[in-house]
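Key result, reporting period 2: structure in, sequence out.
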């Protein structure tokens, strides 16, 4: 490899690594969800790529989705060792379980989404919406 080619490769690698470093410091980098492009734009997804949703009636970081609601819209559970990071927080549910929230809004999955990237719950009943970064 010639010296000019090697210099270009080093500069390109430096730019790539700088971009990775910036991403590592973003609030999305180490949280329980990642951003994913879908047919309706970029949304938050769980570790399996399934779309996350918020419920319009959830207030003050508290979930209002229990029983049958939570069967259809399973909460994004937080494990005991999980800790808040960036824009992600953990809310305590009235049943004592822990649920992830983004910007204070509890996060849920939708039972009718079957594949990563599905967004079938968006605007459902005019109260469920995709979570957006």
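The corresponding designed sequence is given below.
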């Amino acid at each position: 490899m010639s010296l000019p080619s090697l210099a270009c490769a080093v500069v390109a690698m430096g730019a790539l690594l700088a971009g990775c470093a910036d991403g590592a410091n973003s609030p999305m980098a180490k949280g329980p969800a990642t951003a994913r492009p879908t047919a309706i734009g970029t949304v938050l997804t769980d570790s399996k790529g399934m779309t996350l949703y918020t419920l319009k009636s959830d207030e003050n970081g508290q979930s209002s989705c229990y029983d049958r609601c939570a069967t259809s819209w399973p909460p994004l559970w937080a494990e005991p060792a999980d800790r808040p990071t960036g824009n992600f927080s953990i809310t305590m549910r009235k049943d004592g379980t822990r649920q992830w929230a983004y910007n204070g809004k509890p996060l849920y999955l939708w039972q009718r989404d079957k594949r990563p990237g599905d967004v079938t719950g968006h605007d459902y009943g005019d109260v469920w919406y995709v979570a957006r970064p």
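The CA atoms of residues 15 and 89 lie 32 Å apart. Residues 1-29 have pLDDT under 50 and may be disordered. This case is discussed further under Risks and Mitigation.
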